[in-house]
# Entry
Amino acid sequence: MPRRCPEEAFLHAIALIVASGRGQRFGGALPKQYQPLAGRPVLRHCALRFARHPGIAGVRVVIHPEDQVDYQAACGDLALLPPVAGGATRQESVLCGLESLADQPPELVLVHDGARPLVDDGLIDRVLAGLAEHAAVLPALPVTDSLKRVEGDLVAGSVAREGLQRAQTPQGFRFAELLAAHRRFAGQALTDDTALMEAAGIPVAVVAGAEANLKITTAEDLARAQALLAGQLIPCTGQGFDVHRLEPGARLVLLGVPLPDEPFGLVGHSDADVGLHALTDALLGALGAGDIGSHFPPSEPQWRGADSTLFLEHARQLIEAAGGRILHVDVTLICERPKIGPHRAAMVARLAGLLRLPERRVSVKATTTERLGFTGRGEGIAAQAVATVALPA
Ligand code: MG
# Structure
């Protein structure tokens, strides 16, 4: 269940994301709403931003009937309402979405373009707040450039920009009023949903839009969204610590590098790669995604003797799925033996390969404990790790 803000708990709001267009202006085989943006499809960004908002109880996407496979790849794993097929025009598609909700109507609906992936919580908040007072709410931004009417390639006149604003989405509505307007004006090709409310004589309140909430129409827009998104990532740090016991004759693998010439090896449920375990925990920590034991319980026999690179790859994929990116890792191995120096370059190269990082972003260090404690007596090896990960704000 999504979290609900107390002040919004009495208003049941559904986000209806319209993603059924073919995007003729974008070109290419893949519709723009399924184009990759910072490692995930444009539509997935939209869906996640609404699904995670505490004031939104559910998300439904209106898709093109031919896009089932792309939709499943983009959003199939998210807890959304099942998608519905749209119609020939945007207005028809919104009506399809509204009708699909009509049996159990929400009080509010936010209609959003599937090609606006940078909608943010503050904008959704403003639209929801506006709906406490009004039946229709439009986010919009003032026009700052001079406006010209052009005929052919000549200016035919200047247009006063006073009072003009650029309409964005999500546009918010009392569900019953919007559905009634869509049914009444079906087939009239009005430009957007607030235009239907205007036609129905229902006042539309304006709240501030957001400059970053751009609509992706061209490849240049996608590049701009990419740059904006990169600027929105924030650095998060995770740390990990692990210990495994040394025993004679056991296999020794440290940071994914087998060390077959050592007389002692590490024992544990998996391959006991203590360095990879600490590093996996550091990555999970940066993501706030629990620890290695919660993802790979030692009680499950399938992880017996497991190659610990699997655990690291899992953490890397979780970060990528969250729209994040690993920036840097630093691992310290704590032991009297083996000597790490001769293997350090191989370990750095191995980690860089596993994490898809340049080697300069991977640090492997070693220390002893001056023959003190269990590591000093050679009973075990300890490892600690710190990971820095850029994650969506
Ligand atoms: Mg371990």
User: Anything to note?
Assistant: The chain is about 30% helix and 25% strand. Confidence is low (pLDDT under 50) at residues 1-9. The two ends are 21 Å apart (CA to CA).
